[in-house]
Amino acid sequence: xxxxxxxxxxxxxTVAEAEALWYDxxxxxxxxxxxxxxxxxxxxxxxxxxxxVWRSGxxxxxxxxxxxxxxxxxxxxxxxxxxxxxxxQQSVQFSATGSSLTIAxxxxxxxxxxxxxxxxxxWLFIRRAEAESLRRTLAAFAAELEQREI
Length: 150
Prior knowledge:
- The protein has helices at residues 15-22, 28-31, 118-149; strands at residues 2-11, 35-42, 51-56, 63-72, 76-82, 86-97, 100-111.
- The chain is α+β, with helices and mostly antiparallel strands.
- It has one domain (2-149): Alpha-D-Glucose-1,6-Bisphosphate, Chain A, domain 4 (2-Layer Sandwich), CATH 3.30.530.
- The protein has a seven-stranded antiparallel sheet with strand order 1-7-6-5-4-3-2.
């Protein structure tokens, strides 16, 4: 299993403000890297057991299925994530300190397939690409939060 991480700190926001946007699936195309559209939602996100299916753009991950396996209001959420290339668990954590909010994303993933080059390509390329995607998501999320505050 491999892990990709990213974190961002934003000034003068509450966890509630951040969570309201993070769990608003209508807003996901504005900040989740590669997400083109939400296809279906089963259950009551962000509650445990809810399932969301979304699609990426043409050069992206294809169809992605996310199942909520843990949700703690005011703290974060953990998802089972699957697409054609990976099986993973992704977590988001919110933590407030003074007048700032830190949001951390982590993706623990296993590549699908049996290629002998799978581990090498993960070490050289994929892990870095996954971490960059998480960073782009957080940067776009922060920009969207800032725009909504204006």
